[in-house]
Amino acid sequence: MSRIFSGIQPSGTLHIGNYLGAVKNWAALQHTHESFFCVVDYHAIIAAYEPADLRARTADMIVSLLAAGVDPSRCTLFVQSMVPEHTELAWIFNTITPLGELERQTQFKDKASREESVPAGLLNYPVLQAADILLYRADRVPVGEDQVQHLELSREISRKWNARFDAGVGAGDAFFPEPEPLLTPSRRIMGLDGKAKMSKSLGNTVGLLEPADEIWAKLRPAVTDPKRQRRTDPGTPEVCNIYHLHKAFSPPETVQHVAVQCSTAGWGCIDCKKVLHESMERELVPIRSRAREVAANGALVKEMIDAGADHARRVAQATMREVKDRMGLT
Ligand code: AQP
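A: This is the predicted complex of the input protein with adenosine-5'-tetraphosphate.
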């Protein structure tokens, strides 16, 4: 069985971009892959935060993941800071990662341009990410498209480490695998302003657990095809964010109908959004209800996360013993 790893930052609440790009896929893949899923709180402390908020967001993220279908009886679910080997391996990888590779990462350039003072952790983020994945020697990583460049770097780090410390081992038996992304058809969900990727830090999100009326309040003014100035103007579905959300939430026959109604101006954009809202509700109502059940069961959730961390730690420690041995570390 191939092994997968993926993480999510508790840097805000889980939104439909995270869900459609990654987490929904986690819930499916846990049935066919040995799966490690992690709330990556060490990544989240790179941005300014309050300790009490971080603790609360980590707990909320776990509730959202469980509500979205991640099942600890089928996967290993844990919190990154419960397994110190993540940062230990990240330090080791820092010693072999070229600075230039880190500086050219799009996400670093993008996020650094929004900071007055850039923390070194922002630059080294993809090194910790490589450590997260390779600590479990995972060869597949279910992520959204924004993480594809980081994964290229993880593969390079893996190759570099293997080339330096795996001498004598045949190519097929390299200690660290070269992890490949597993993308979904919704690999890049745009924010409702249509300007940028839906992102916790940009405030352009629709939360997975948001109440129906709040979702509608965001959907109603959401950007559509700019050519549809009037109700009677026909549109081009492919350029419309709402159409892409239909593809993610509505059944195929509805998606087809939406395309026809948009391109013939049969529907106005509000009609189209109302149907999308109904489709979203069909998927989100059971998730919200599971979230309420999970949240009422704090002791059980803590037990599940502790058990997940115990298992993750055992696997991580085995990797680190081998890594340190091959590197001449004590
Ligand atoms: N808009 C998106 N469309 C598809 N997939 C997405 N992901 C994030 N945004 C989208 C995927 O969700 C997983 C978890 O992401 P993350 O929280 O670890 O980091 P991120 O990609 O940086 O997510 P955000 O929401 O943009 O957070 P901030 O603003 O804090 O940086 C990943 O697999 C990601 O690809």
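The two ends are 32 Å apart (CA to CA). Residues 298-327 form the longest helix (30 residues).
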